[in-house]
Amino acid sequence: MPLLTTAVLAAFVAYAGAWYLGALEGNFALLLFVATVVTGLYWLAERFYFLPRRRAAAATLQAQGTQRRAELAARGITQVDGDLAEARQRLLMQPWWLDWTAGLFPVILAVFVLRSFLFEPFKIPSGSMIPTLLVGDLILVNKFAYGVRLPVIHTKLTEGTSPQRGDVMVFRYPPKPSLDYIKRVVGVPGDEVAYLNKRLTINGKPVSKEPVSDFFDEDAMAYYKQYEEVLGTRRHRILNDDKGAAFVPGVENFPNQGNCRYSLEGVVCKVPEGHYFMMGDNRDNSADSRFWGFVPDRNIVGKAFFIWMNFGSFKRIGSFE
């Protein structure tokens, strides 16, 4: 078992190392699931096989030691070498290969359940959601709001509530589902979403957009036009870059692309059933549904709702719209 455990742990380390170095594309959900299963098997083996064997050996040692001391005492010998309690404790001690597997199972299981079914942490890697979310924000995502899903295979177990316009949602990027993206829900199934000349219209009704003070992007060292927008019940801020073109360049081929009409003014899309139209709040600096299409319901990860840390600014901590 020590050799087998060494091989298993080495495989985990090799996988993580190759992922870190970019030699392969890692899947943390799959890695966590496998770790939970493997450590769970060790935990069961420890509880129902290895621990009872160690306890039986310790009980035998205790009985033999007690008997030997009784025999020596009958001969008048009271000084006996060896500490029986210490020897018994060594027999009961969990070996290293169980300590690093079965011993870690409760912690790994708790992380697996928490991350898979309740809340998952994410780090914002790009500026597509500025000014709502900044690069470096560490956020929490509610994994059950839109229905509980099985990890790895993403099968839906409960319905939950449907995503609403204005929600900030994490989803698996349709062209490459191994990547997680975060954008705002702009169109729900059946909506006709138009973004023409940097003006958002849903089902023929212009979305409220009021100018507020300009936003200064410290990374780009530039000011951008900032507006307050209302989508559904969500009131949030967006950015527009006066230098950005209205048309959508570099559109990819995507499913249901026939639902969209592109022009020099922008794009008009009819959202198909079971899909959502997503846009970043940094409207002229966001690769979103305008470029790569609709997000199917099966790709939903969860609803983003809280910034739990930003090491560059503790004032960022809190909920957001």
Write the layout of secondary structure elements.
Elements (H helix, E strand, L loop, with lengths): L1 H19 L7 H47 L9 H9 L3 H4 L5 H14 E5 L14 E5 L25 E5 L7 E8 L4 E5 L2 E4 L2 E2 L2 E9 L4 E10 L2 E7 L19 E4 L2 E5 L4 E5 L9 H4 L2 E2 L3 E10 L8 E2 L2
Antiparallel strand pairs: 1-2, 2-15, 3-4, 3-15, 4-13, 5-6, 5-12, 6-7, 8-9, 9-10, 11-12, 13-14, 15-16
Can I get a quick summary?
By secondary structure, the chain is an alpha+beta fold. 30% of the residues lie in helices and 27% in strands.
SSE ordering: HHHHHEEEEEEEEEEEEEHEEE
Assign a percent range to the helix content.
25-40%
Global mean pLDDT: 90
Nearest-angstrom radius of gyration? 29 Å
The gross shape turns out to be elongated
Spatial gap, N to C terminus: 52 Å
Number of structurally distinct domains: 2
CATH architecture designation of the largest domain: Ribbon
Poorly predicted regions are none
The computed structural class is alpha+beta
Which CATH class of the largest domain is shown?
A: Mainly Beta
> How many separate helices?
6
Characterize the main sheet: 8 strands, antiparallel
Q: CATH topology of the largest domain, anyone?
A: Umud Fragment, subunit A
